[in-house]
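Q: What does the assembly look like in three dimensions?
Context provided by user:
Components: two
Sequences:
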Amino acid sequence: MSRRAVRAVTSWAAVGALAGLALTGCTAEADEGPVVVVSTNILGDVVTELVGDQADVVTLMKPNADPHSFEISAQQGAQLRAADLVVSNGLGLEEGLQQHLDAASAEDVPAVVAGDEIDVLDYAEGDAAGSPDSHFWTDPGRMLDVVDALEPALAELDGIDDEALAASASAYRGELEQLDADMEATFAAIPAERRALVTNHHVFGYLADRFDFEVVGAVIPGGTTLAAPSASDLADLVEAVEDTGVPTIFAESSSPDRLVQALADEADVRVAVVELYTESLTGPDEGAPDYLTMMRTNTERIATGLSP
Amino acid sequence: MRSLTPLTALLLTPLALGLAACSGAASPQDDAATGAATDAATGPDHGAVTGAAELAEPALGLTTIDPSGQVTHLDLLDESVTELGTVGTPSAVTTDGRYLFAQTDEGVEIVDSGAWTWDHVDHFHYYRAEPALLGAVEGEGPATVATTNQSMSGGTGVFFEGSGDAVLLDTAALSGGSVEELFRLEGEPGAGMVVPVGSLALVTEGQGAATRVVGRTAEGDETGAAAPCPDAAGTITTRVGAVVGCSDGALLASVVDGELTIESVPYPADATAPPATSFDNREGRPTVAGLAGTEGIWVLDTREREWSLLPAPAPLVHVTAVDDDDDHLLALAEDGRVLVLDGESGAVVAETAPLVADSLAAGLSPVLVADQQRAYLSGPAERVLHEIDHADGARIARSFETAAEPTWTAETGR
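A: Here is the predicted structure of the complete assembly.
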C-alpha cells in the first residue's frame, strides 16, 4: 500500500472536472434569461411556482437530501456567484453551503433570505435552546411572508413579465391560503387534549406554533436498543405517550415495527409509529414532490394519527 | 422564452439521461440521484454527502483490529460481520467515531469504517458510505492522535514523538479517500499534541513543566493565541470546545467569531489528587471524566467550566462519563467489572460480573465506550464484545463472540 495521499476511493475531484468539460457546451445559452439559484428544494419549488418558465430556476439541493450538509460542486459555486438572484433559507440551515452564499453576497448578487422575512421562533429546549429554529416552512403563513418578499425581488430581474409574475404569485398565494385554511379545518377534528406531537422530528415548531400543538420531544430507541430492549429503554417515550394520551407517535425509525412491538411487549403501550416529511422534498414519484403536497400529506398523517 | 430544460427538472428525473451533455452543472453522480435509493451500498449519492447514504438512525458498529492487523466490522443493527482488510499490527488505536487511527510500523494507518454521525446540536444526521483502508501518515515513534467530533470537516491532529513532527490532517479529504496534510511542523522529539479546534489547531511546544500550547491556522501559521499547559497530557473534544489536560487544570479552546480562544479551567485550589492525563465521555457530551491517578475520578463539566473529584469505589483502569439525565459515569475496575457510578457521589449504582479479568491480567487493553442507550466492552483475551444496558442495572443486553482477539476496538457510526 502506498503511504501518502492515498486515493483508495474514486477521486470526486477528477469526476467533477469531467463534469465541467461536459458543461461548457451549454452554459452560453444560459444568457437567454435570468438565472435564479435556490438553495433548498422546498424554496426551489416555491420559486418555480412563482416565476414559471420566465427564469432558469436552479435548485442546488437534490430530492431526499439534508439541507444542512449538502455540498455543491465548484461549477455550482460559480453558478451561484454568477446568478441574477440567490434565494436561500438562512437562519443557519444551509451550513454546508454558507461559504458559497457568502461568496455570492460578496459579489453583490441580489439575494432573498427567507429567514429575514419571517417572525422567527427560537428552540424552546435542548442544547439548541434559544437559537433560531430554521424550519419555518412547516407554517404556510410564514411561507406566505416569504412569497411576499420573493415577488418584488423576482420582478427586478431583467426580462420578467410583471403581469405574468403577479398572476402566478397571486395564484400561489391563494394556494397557500387555502392550504392554511385546510390544515386548520383538518386539525380541528383532533380533540384538544390530543393536540400533541410526540416526535423525534425537530422541525415542527412552527407548525405547532401556528396550529396550537404541543411538541413533545422524546428519545426514540434505535436499533441497538431494540435488539434486546428492557422497560427502562422505553421509559422516556412511554412517559410521553402516557402524559399526552396520543395513539400515534411521529418518529423517524429504521425499524418502526420493532419499536411498536417493543412498546407493546415491554410497556403494554399500543401506539402507531408514523413518519412525516421534514426537511426535503422527494422525487416526483414519491410522497412529497412539491411543497403543497408535502404539507398536505403531513397534515393528513397527523390528523389521521391523532383523531379518535 | 427558455429553450433549455430547467436544471431542477434534470436533477429530479432520470430523463436527464437524454440531456446528459447539458446536465453537468452538477457533478455527474447527480444523474444517479433519482431519490429512490435507500440502500447504502447501491445509492452512491442518495444522501446529502457525496458517496454517502443518509440513514434514519446511526449505523452503529464495533470495528476491531486483531493482532495480525485484520480489521473486522460488526454491524450492531443487523449483527453482520464484515472483513475490511488488513493493516500493520497496531500499538494503539484512536477513533473519532468514524475513522480508526492505528499506530503501526507504517506510521498512523487510517481505516474508514464508512459510518458516521453529523452533530447539528439541535439534531443529528446519520450516514453510511463504503468502508475503506486509506493508507498511512508517515512519522517516527509513538504518535498522539487527537480528533474532533465531526468526521466531515476540520482537522485531525497527529504528533510523532520520535521526530517531533506536528501534523494536521484534512478530515474532509479523508472522506474522499485521500490522506492529506494541512500542515507538518518540525519540532523537538518528545511528547506533544496537535489538538484540532474547528478548522484551527493547538500545537504543544516545549516539554514538562515548560510546555505551552500555541494556536495555529490550517496553514500552520500562528494565530496569536497561546497558553501555558505544564505537563500537557490528554485531550478530548466536547460540543463546548477542545479540552487539553495540564498539571494545573485544563485548557478549553474554541473558535468564537473566527478567532481561536483559549480558556483555563484550573483544578480546585485545595486539590491534592493527581491531574487527569486522559479524558473520555459519550461522544460530544459536555461532561468528561478521567482518573485522578489512583486517588479518585476527575469529572470536568466543560459547559460550567467546573471540576469535581469523586472517590473511586474500587481500583479502576478506565472511566468515562455518560452525561445522561442521571449524570452516570461508567468505570472499568481492575478486577474486570464494569461499574455504573452516580455522577454526584461516585457511589456504585450497578455493576457487572468480572467480564474481562483475563484480559486485564494479561496486560491487554479492554475498551469501554459509553453510548446514549448502551455501553460496549471488549474482551481481547475472552474474544468477546459485550453490549451493556447501563440504565438498567448494568444488564448485559447482547454478547458477540469474535473469531480472533479484538485487541483494539472502536465504536463507529457515532
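Follow-up: Residues 359 and 407 of chain B are 10 Å apart (CA to CA).
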